[in-house]
């Protein structure tokens, strides 16, 4: 199969390279087939308001239901999807599926909360992303305020271009979050010039919040800065009650992590929403 793809032949000069290139070609071919075959599914991880304990959002996280390999996590195929460009149709599928599912929950009488989707750099630079998002919202009937888009800091590097794109999305009514905040390219310039609603503190800072005074200082500073800039702030990767206490005592707005819930199938989300319809989902203050 590698031989047939002339474009990549010159790259193969060792057994290792052979395997890597073959793996890439196989995975790209497999992803095209999988997209046509409906093998991708979205899981959803609840986001909790720290003051009320209520579920206030859901992050859509893609998985691949592979016929032989089982449930494949995104870390194993998103990089190849980005490199090959398949991320554009795949990413559009994610946006549409998340909007369709969120509208279906709303139609089933569940509380109306936003669903957030992760955007790749390639999608962000696609011509007319806003037009695509607008047509998906129209097709699925989901109101724009119930869709949120997560970008990473590196996508703001070209502030002028990011500004144009994010302004358009914001004018539609879609909110923008900065994912993995603190791990990427960090210029504070974009924070004041781009229409951003929310910062998501990367889980690497949250993990050792109890033991590492530097991490604790960084998290406290991000929360304070976000609030001074009138931004919402959510902590990722919260796994313990101690981490939760720290975040609450520093008035972090929201949290997402295994302590609340792992990512769930859509059926399990429905169950959770029904069950928690009017009850706090997280232990609240005493
Ligand atoms: P992310 O957007 O930062 O998503 C959070 C990741 O952290 C998820 O991994 C989630 O399962 C995991 N996580 C949540 N809570 C905890 C916790 O308490 N502890 C730990 N250790 N991990 C936790 P997942 O689902 O494997 O996704 C990994 C990454 O793949 C995502 O990071 C995102 O960058 C990317 N990704 C996922 N879905 C999509 C998608 O539809 N499109 C694009 N472009 N990227 C996606
Ligand atoms: Mg994310
Ligand atoms: Mg993240
Ligand atoms: Mg990420």
Automatic annotation (TrEMBL):
From which lineage does this chain's organism come?
A: Bacteria, Bacillati, Bacillota, Bacilli, Bacillales
Residue span(s) of domain EAL:
24-277
- Covered residues, full protein: 320 to 605 of 605
What is the name of the protein in this document? GGDEF domain-containing protein
- Its source organism is Cohnella abietis
Q: Where in this chain does the entry annotate a coiled-coil region?
A: none
């Amino acid at each position: 199969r590698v031989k047939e793809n002339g474009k990549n032949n010159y790259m193969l000069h060792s057994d290792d390279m052979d395997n890597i290139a073959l793996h890439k070609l196989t995975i790209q071919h497999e992803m095209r087939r999988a997209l046509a075959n409906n093998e991708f599914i979205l899981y959803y991880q609840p986001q909790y308001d720290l003051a009320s304990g209520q579920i206030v959002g859901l992050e859509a996280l893609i998985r691949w239901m592979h016929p032989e390999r089982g449930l494949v996590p995104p870390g194993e195929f998103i990089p190849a999807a980005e490199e090959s460009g398949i991320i554009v149709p795949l990413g559009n599928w994610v946006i549409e599926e998340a909007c369709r599912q969120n509208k279906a929950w709303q139609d089933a009488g569940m509380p109306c909360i936003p669903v957030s989707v992760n955007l790749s750099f390639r999608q962000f630079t696609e011509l007319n992303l806003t037009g695509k998002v607008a047509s998906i919202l129209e097709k699925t009937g989901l109101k724009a305020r119930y869709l949120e888009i997560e970008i990473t800091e590196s996508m703001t590097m070209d502030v002028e271009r990011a500004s144009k794109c994010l302004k358009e999305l914001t004018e539609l009514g879609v909110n923008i979050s900065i994912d993995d905040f603190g791990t990427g390219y960090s210029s504070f310039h974009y924070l004041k010039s781009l229409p951003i609603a929310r910062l998501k503190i990367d889980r690497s800072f949250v993990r050792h919040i109890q033991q590492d005074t530097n991490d604790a200082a960084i998290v406290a500073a991000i929360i304070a800065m976000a609030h001074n800039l009138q931004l919402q702030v959510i902590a990722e990767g919260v796994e313990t009650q101690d981490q939760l206490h720290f975040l609450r005592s520093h008035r972090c707005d929201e949290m997402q992590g295994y302590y609340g819930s792992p990512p769930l199938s859509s059926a399990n989300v429905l169950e959770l929403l029904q069950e928690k319809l009017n009850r706090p989902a997280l232990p609240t203050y005493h």
